[in-house]
Design goal:
The protein is mainly alpha-helical. It has a single domain (4-247), classed as Creatininase (Rossmann fold). The protein contains ten helices and three strands, in the order αβαβαβααααααα. The protein has a three-stranded parallel beta sheet with strand order 2-1-3, sandwiched between helices. Helix 2 (40-58) crosses helix 6 (164-173) and helix 6 (164-173) crosses helix 10. The two termini are 34 Å apart.
């Protein structure tokens, strides 16, 4: 597995000549309940990239993982200690610069691997992509086709920020970073965060999450996380294969049904 930031410039040039997929993890530093680390989104994005790179290795296709974009808009968690929220314009400019820089240095195939789902963050990402010289693959977990697979099932795998979905993913990626005794004892917060945001909530507190989590993290498990990562990696490979059909990366993978 190749980490772009650990290469010399000569090694990077040799890699570039092979036409790799460069995976750029994107997350945030924000409160994720009392049981998950502030960098939970970064942990998830980096693990998505790591597993996707491993899948590319299995297909004998060159890849590299770029250093993580770790700071973004995180205003909903801004009232909690440790959260670092960047203004949308600043984040847009930085992300545009990072993606453009990867393309200018010769990497034609860049895939943005995002794990931060705050609405303003996603708006910023979507605003940047059309401004790039070359198209960037963006496997979007909020796409209704993938959301049905990721959120569904008897386990109700998605129930809000720092709930079953994110907690299960962190358990599968970095179980040592989960405050397990706290997690197992947390009561459910039965609030629909997306609906609360639609109704005008501007913070987790206003939405009804006084400890920066929603849903039932006590129901999370490593097994759920492993299944979610399997779907997420397939999503990355299909997004890359559809943007660059000459790579054949989507071959043998079943795309989800249309929404």
């Amino acid at each position: 597995m190749t980490l772009l930031g650990e290469l010399t410039f000569e090694e990077a040039a040799a890699l570039c000549a092979r036409g790799p997929v460069v995976l750029l993890p994107v997350g945030a530093v924000e409160a994720h309940g009392p049981h998950l680390p502030l960098a939970a989104d970064c942990v998830i994005a980096e693990e998505m990239a790591r597993r996707a790179a491993a899948a590319l290795d299995e297909r004998a296709f060159p890849s590299a993982i770029a250093p993580t974009v770790a700071y973004s808009c995180a205003e909903y968690a801004a009232g909690f200690a440790g959260t670092v929220s960047v203004e949308a314009a600043g984040f847009e400019a930085y992300l545009l610069g990072a993606l453009s820089g990867l393309q200018r240095t010769g990497f034609a195939r860049v895939c943005l691997v995002n794990a931060h789902l705050e609405p303003r963050h996603l708006e910023a990402v979507r605003a940047v992509l059309p401004r790039l010289e070359r198209k960037v693959a963006f496997p979007d977990v909020t796409d209704k086709r993938w959301a049905r697979l990721l959120h569904g099932g008897p386990a109700r795998r998605f129930d809000g920020h720092a709930g079953v979905y994110e907690t299960s993913l962190v358990l599968a990626a970095r179980p040592d970073s989960v405050r397990e005794q706290l997690r197992a004892a947390l009561p459910e917060v039965p609030v629909n965060l997306a609906r609360a945001i639609e109704d005008g909530a501007k913070s987790f507190e206003q939405a009804g999450g006084p400890r920066a989590y929603f849903g039932a993290p006590a129901r999370a498990s490593r097994a759920i996380g492993e299944e979610l990562f399997r779907i997420l990696v397939e999503m990355v490979l299909i997004a890359c294969g559809q943007l660059w059909p000459e790579t054949g990366l989507a071959a043998g993978l079943a795309t989800p049904p249309e929404a």
